[in-house]
Amino acid sequence: MFYREAGDFKTSYRDDNQTFPIRLDRAGYWIALFVAFCVIPFFVNDYWVNSIFAPFFIYAIAALGLNILTGYAGQVSLGTGGFMAVGAYACYKLMVAFPDINIVFHVLIAGGITAAVGVAFGLPSLRIKGFYLAVATLAAQFFLVWLFNKVAWFYNYSASGQINAPERSVFGIVVTGPNTEAWAKYMICLVFLVGVAWMARNLTRGMTGRKWMGIRDMDIAAEIIGVNPLMAKMSAFAVSSFFVGIAGALFFAVYLGAAEAGESFGITKSFLVLFMVIIGGLGSIFGSFAGAAFMVLMPVLLKNVLVGTMGWPTEIAAELEFIIVGGLIVIFLILEPHGLAQLWRLTKEKLRLWPFPH
Amino acid sequence: MTFKRVAAASVAALMVGSPVMADLVFPSLSYRTGPFAAGGIPYADGFADYMTLLNERDGGIGGVAVSVPECETAYNTEKGVECYEATKGQGALAYNPLSTGITYQLIPKATADDIPLYTPGYGRTSAANGDVFSHVFNFPANYWNGASAAINHVLDLNGGDLKGKKIVLLHFNGAYGKEPIPTLTKLGEKHGFDLTTIPIDYPGQEQKAQWLQIRREKPDYVLFWGWGVMNQVAIQEAANIRYPMDQFIGVWWSGAEHDVKPAGDKATGYKAMTFHGVGSDYPVFADLQKHVVDAGKAAGDGSNVGTVIYNRGVYAAMMLAEAAKKAQEIHGVADITSAQMRDGLEQLEITNARMAELGMEGFGPEFKVSCANHGGPGAIAIQQWDAAAGKWSLISDFGGSDMDVIQPLIDADSAAYAAENKIEPQCN
């Protein structure tokens, strides 16, 4: 009744192409941004930031990155953990080497370095496809983690191979290290997330994104109509790795504060982000958010219900978490193979007709 | 976004639980799942059971009940952070996360929140320097003491000469397993032995490659820094290549009953370091059996009482309880805060008389913590497994370690940390 296009007149091409063509959606978007930027920062505490918002935002960035590569450009990647490690270690080396520079630049440069590494490991994608490419990126994952464990220069020769984020600030506000205020940690992650999501949305609906989708849907046809596969694939790897690198840098510097390659950026991380993308919905910006929220918040929610409210023993709750989350993934994928994003799309279709479906 | 909001709202509703106030809260960041659960379960049981014993037998510590909220980390640092944040609001007095990785994560956080970390026999070794690490305590022994004690034991076996010997460090490829490398490297230079390090990646169920390398290099001794399922695998593999067990020495986390039992008789002779007594011939375990296990209040099924890792959990809980008592004494209040708990840990003194009162005579060494020394005496003995008898026995006395080598390393590592984080020395 309220959720519909009718009456919302578009008078320019710009209006016609906007991200949220329905008034209610637009309002929801601006309200969400307002709440995220102007309300939540005044109420968050350490628990909310460290257990919910920071991991959710950072995984959402990583999922956006992987979604560009796998969802939009159709190149399967199992190297996300390794690329996050590149972002984290690059950020660490930059933070230590140039302590006076604003951390935002370190994170961006770390993303740039990851993009370069991503392009290098993306080169095989010109020759191989599908599962074979997945194996090549898997090699990247193992090689990178091995490298950061083996070469002591990356962790500044510390005794245990751990890297620790020193205290760094943005405009005098501390955003890394133990003395970070909860809201500062929240804001830096949020700003990066909004920036990345905005970039991703605009890239994917422009010519670059159309080229990626052309390559995904049928590479030979795309090549015939003039898409350069080299440029399309390499740009997908570069943009994707840039985002993943930013996620890795924030993951280490802002969220955890200390990391080691094998434990924080192992193969499980690659799978986790891939699951987020698949459950959220391949080729959807909203899907990246939904997938990250599902994989990050669901276990925390279940733990709080089972242990906090119902008082169950922790190990039974932990095992049940696996069963429930795993079960939900299977159920979701059977009922809606295109992920949460498709579920959301269907809901919106239904809402447009409601309450008169005929 | 809708899903997120619904989830957030439900979490909000659930988070407003009932924080247990007016208790002495010692959160247990345990892991009862995952590949390291074999060690995590008995430790968490021992820790919780000792606290239960205090509640049941003595009415808590200084008349205040103790509570041990558990939080499952699965040895995962992200979950560890979540658990820390979730429990610190309940008035946590001290953390004992039983994971070197999580400890590294928590050192700056806990220091900023003024909550002490107690990491007996694990964690960051250089935290023994209390001048820099004001809120971290790792008495009575740390990894560098362990590395040195193992080398001392090997020196004893070889008449004090290790020139040209080959020693392999087989270690978990993570923060924990890498800790002893600097000390062993230095000791290698000092005594002239040849050190090779062979890493095992998490979780370590597959070690064929590592043992193939050991078989090829034929080292004189293998030192082992493993945990959880990788211990059983390593001992089984050692038995498979017929590596002499009495030349295979594990750290204290690689020397429990469940590590050696799967290899059966072939595990006889396997050695491990320890910083406390073995077996259940101490009165405290009879009390635990009577007041906790038989009363049906045990954290686990009660079958672990007296095993190596369970005992270590009891020992850690005892230290924290004694420190809490000390804090109550110093500050004259029963309901202490985490800052007062820190003072208690720093001024803790364990005497043999006190250990006897606690029913743990001879279980651990006498020592006194000071502002500068948070590391304790570092007295370590070697225990050996006898499969036929099914028990560990001590084959050496509790001996010191080579502090001439270790102290400069501790000073250098903590100085680097202090410089990186701009920490002023807290003592004097």
Explained architecture:
- The complex is a heterodimer of chains A (358) and B (428).
- Chain A is mainly alpha-helical.
- Chain A has helices at residues 13-16, 23-39, 46-72, 80-97, 103-122, 130-150, 182-204, 207-217, 219-224, 229-256, 261-264, 267-280, 285-309, 314-335, 339-353; strands at residues 163-164, 169-170, 173-174, 258-259.
- The model of chain A has no long low-confidence stretch (mean pLDDT 92).
- Chain B has 428 residues and is α/β, with parallel strands linked by helices.
- Chain B has 2 domains: 20-141 and 280-377 and 409-421, Rossmann fold, CATH 3.40.50; 143-278 and 380-404, Response regulator (Rossmann fold, 3-Layer(aba) Sandwich), CATH 3.40.50.2300.
- A 7-stranded mixed β-sheet of chain B has the order 8-7-9-10-11-14-15, sandwiched between helices. Chain B has a two-stranded parallel ribbon with strand order 1-3. In chain B, strands 2-4 form a two-stranded parallel ribbon.
- In chain B, strand 14 and strand 15 (391-394) form a beta hairpin.
- In chain B, helix 2 (37-58) packs across helix 11 and helix 3 runs parallel beside helix 4 (100-113).
- Chain B starts with a helix and ends in a 7-residue tail after the last helix.
- In chain B, 59% of the residues are buried.
- The interface between A and B is large, with 54 and 58 residues.
List the helices and strands and how they pair.
The complex is a heterodimer of chains A (358) and B (428).
Chain A: H1 13-16, H2 23-39, H3 46-72, H4 80-97, H5 103-122, H6 130-150, E1 163-164, E2 169-170, E3 173-174, H7 182-204, H8 207-217, H9 219-224, H10 229-256, E4 258-259, H11 261-264, H12 267-280, H13 285-309, H14 314-335, H15 339-353
Antiparallel strand pairs in A: 1-4, 2-3
Helix pairs in contact in A: 3-7, 3-8, 3-10, 3-12, 3-13, 4-5, 4-6, 4-10, 5-10, 7-10, 8-10, 12-13, 12-15, 13-14, 13-15
Chain B: H1 2-15, E1 24-25, E2 28-30, H2 37-58, E3 66-67, E4 70-72, H3 77-88, H4 100-113, E5 117-118, E6 136-137, H5 143-157, E7 166-172, H6 175-178, H7 181-191, E8 194-200, H8 208-217, E9 221-225, H9 229-240, E10 248-250, H10 257-260, E11 271-274, H11 283-293, H12 308-331, H13 338-346, E12 349-350, H14 352-357, E13 367-368, E14 381-386, E15 391-394, H15 403-421
Parallel strand pairs in B: 1-3, 2-4, 5-6, 7-8, 7-9, 9-10, 10-11
Antiparallel strand pairs in B: 11-14, 12-13, 14-15
